[in-house]
Design goal:
It contains four helices and no strands. It is an all-alpha fold.
Length: 57
């Protein structure tokens, strides 16, 4: 289930300019710190780095 939520967050980080706090909440994370931890654990890089990297491509 976490992977599905993070996959949706990745898509929104890559394709929108939404605030990270809104993306985290909309994908079911109550606390931004938990979202940050899970994102880095699953994706391997922090969410801000992912957003920047995905837009540089």
């Amino acid at each position: 289930m976490r992977h599905i939520r993070i996959r949706e967050a990745k898509k929104r980080l890559r394709d929108t300019d939404e605030k990270i706090l809104d993306i985290a909440a909309d994908t079911g994370f109550k606390h931004i710190s938990h979202f940050n931890k899970m994102f880095k654990e699953i994706v391997g890089i922090p969410r801000l780095q992912y957003r920047k990297k995905s837009r540089d491509i």
